[in-house]
Amino acid sequence: MRVSLFYHIGIGCPGRYDAMASSGLFFKDGKKRIDYILVYKKSSPQVEKRSTFEKNLRAEGLMLEREPAVTNSDIMFVKIHCPWETLCKYAERMNIRMPFRYCGNYFKKPIIYWLPRNPMKLDKEALPDLEETDCYTAPFSRARIHHFTINNKDSFFSNSTRSRIVHHVLQRTKYEDGKSKMGINRLLNNGTYEAAFPPHEGSHKSRHPIKTHGAQNHRHLLYERWARWGMWYKYQPLDLIRRYFGEKIGLYFAWLGWYTGMLIPAALVGLFVFLYGLFTMDSSQVSKEICEANETIMCPMCERNCTLQKLNESCIYAKVTHLFDNGGTVFFAIFMAIWATVFLEFWKRRRAVLTYDWDLIDWEDEEEELRPQFEAKYSQVERVNPITGKPEPFQPFPDKLSRLMVSVSGIFFMISLVLTAVFAVVVYRLVAMEQFASFKWYFIKKYWQFATSGTGVCINFMIIMSLNVVYEKVAYLLTDLEHPRTESEWENSFALKMFLFQFVNLNSSIFYIAFFLGRFAGRPGKYNKLFNRWRLEECHPSGCLIDLCLQMGVIMVLKQMWNNFMELGYPLLQNWWSRRKMKRRGQSMETKISLPQWEKDWNLQPMNLHGLMDEYLEMVLQFGFTTIFVAAFPLAPLLALLNNIIEIRLDAYKFVTQWRRPMPARATDIGIWYGILEGIGVLAVITNAFVIAITSDYIPRFVYAYKYGPCTDQGCLKGYVNSSLSVFDLSELGMGYSGYCRYRDYRAPPWSSTPYEFTLQFWHVLAARLAFIIVFEHLVFGIKSFIAYLIPDVPKDLCDRMRREKYLVQEMMYEAELEHLQRERKKNGKQYHHEWP
């Protein structure tokens, strides 16, 4: 019960229907609208099932018409039309909310929310065919049909609603005798039909201008004002997306648009932190000391081929490190932790407004049908469904537990495989650094650490992409092994496995560099070796943060480029191949242009089997990159923002032009992904605390400035570099060197009474790091909890409006019923007076 936006497009415009009929959107008589398409092969052996199914569809009130394909003599299309009486019957059964007759002036002024109610507004000049009227809605009822606004029966139910009603019938129509022998999904699985889909509303391109009212279709409208690349800076027409593709897809694009919009402040702050590091790079005391250390000799960083280097040779690394590890790092980490909370909390408010606008407040999921695999497996074990009251197959708890344990074991096995791959990359880095240190090319030899890290991250990325293919197949196998009861349970289980696999796959190497690289290398003269052969890798004299930045930047950029290429390139290649096969069969371009709409749709690619899972997974993994290690890479939100601007148009172009029209499904939220996002937000606080405390040099600098620095001014870092380097006697290496070299650590000098033991400064730094982690986590978690408490999930004015509308609709229903009874009495009174002798 709410004031909703309804778009009365084409009401009283016969020219629009003539255009649609000519493009293949109606039966041969040009009057009956095509609501759904079934496709089958004439050579299919499932003739009896198909004929029984279609006979039962007609008995349910649907109208069917067959037509052979133009380009393939073996393909037959079944066009389905749902007449008015059947639409009304099933709209009542499905509790579909429709515009109420009494629209109006109950709200004299617009409602203003804390944030914009709908920033994705439609441009009335750009979309002239959309006529907005504010109307109350109520569940459709044939007994009270006079209460609803029916200006035109052909357009009262939108195309997406008609398709959803037909899909509802298709899912519940039998094709054989038996309680489980029903549904189009089973017929698609056993090959009775090749495909089932609602038709697109004509071509996405048109010779008619956008303002030509008579020849407009929603698909063309979406292409011109949403899917074209020139619309990248425009708001998304969410109401039109929802109207054409359904609420589930509409919510995905609403969430993606909201996420992209919220990235703007994060990207600006991250860019500011980066620019602050850039402008203060030359004035940084640490960078100055490293660049001016002409006489400081560093200990060899590899076993055999490395030569002694001066500290000032690390000048470039020191300056680049300052770009990401500067005074703004802690502030940005706290900001991003708060940003993640604000993003999720305000998304809940945004979702509440959308579910209100889209009539989803009182909507509940329909009772899902059981998966055929579940029924076949447990047909001998039954129980009474507490909702329907009918007996259905049931999975015993011991069987469910055993299958779940096998699935969990498979997950741990795949995670161990990821860790094995990371270990292999670590071994490669240990072997490669010796080779690059003695390389014949001067550039490689001089920057052998950069070459080692760069090639290591590229090899790691190739392993990641290769293992993703394996993970998908294993996730399928494990999910099928669990035998989920319904399709939604299967999708949630599969999505969780894919997230775990890909999250560990993408981030395991980053965790290694952030928290393990250089931590267990030992010291000169007593280095730790892997298998007593390869010396463990050390951090650069400027620290390990530059390696972490390189790892994150390369993986994030390459992963997003690969995803964008596959999202658009793969469907384009498939559709190009379909057109090529048509040419081989001798089909000319003129024949292609004259194809009916249903055959053009058949030649498009179906929406992938995962539905929106791949889209959500890509964005959730990106959200992890943007938040988990953002303290080490403040440009991550900016890269994510640029990618998402492209991603929105890629997805829009794909949905509008490259894919068949999906069934317009309903949903009230983004499902399991919200819980995953909350988990990532918690993990981000912990990881950023450890990155600042352990990976970066923020804490050692802080301790030195306030405890060991020679200056009276707080924050003075004069002499910090010398204080952070320990001394080692080169003669102890046995490599013919003499004198002393320096290395990163806090150990006593060789002339001390306790040579090479940890100094008091080391323990001070360690204590400060632990204290920082505790204080940072408690502070940020406290701020997050306080913000979550302050921001209600539903805006207060929306709650008030919903309560008031509930009252007003009851009043309107009473008034409408009273008016109807008065008209009936007058009518009956006239008849009685006329019949009186």
From TrEMBL:
It is a multi-pass membrane protein. It comes from the Eukaryota. Residues 26-238 form the Anoctamin dimerisation domain. It is found in: Cell membrane; Membrane. It holds the Pfam family Anoct_dimer. The chain crosses the membrane at residues 252-279, 329-347, 404-427, 447-471, 499-522, 619-642, 670-694, 762-781. One of its GO terms (cellular component) is plasma membrane. Keywords: Cell membrane, Glycoprotein, Membrane, Transmembrane, Transmembrane helix. Residues 241-805 form the Anoctamin transmembrane domain. InterPro entries: Anoct_dimer, Anoctamin, Anoctamin_TM. One of its GO terms (molecular function) is chloride channel activity. Belongs to the anoctamin family. PANTHER family: ANOCTAMIN (PTHR12308), ANOCTAMIN-3 (PTHR12308:SF16). This is Anoctamin. It comes from Cyanoderma ruficeps (rufous-capped babbler).
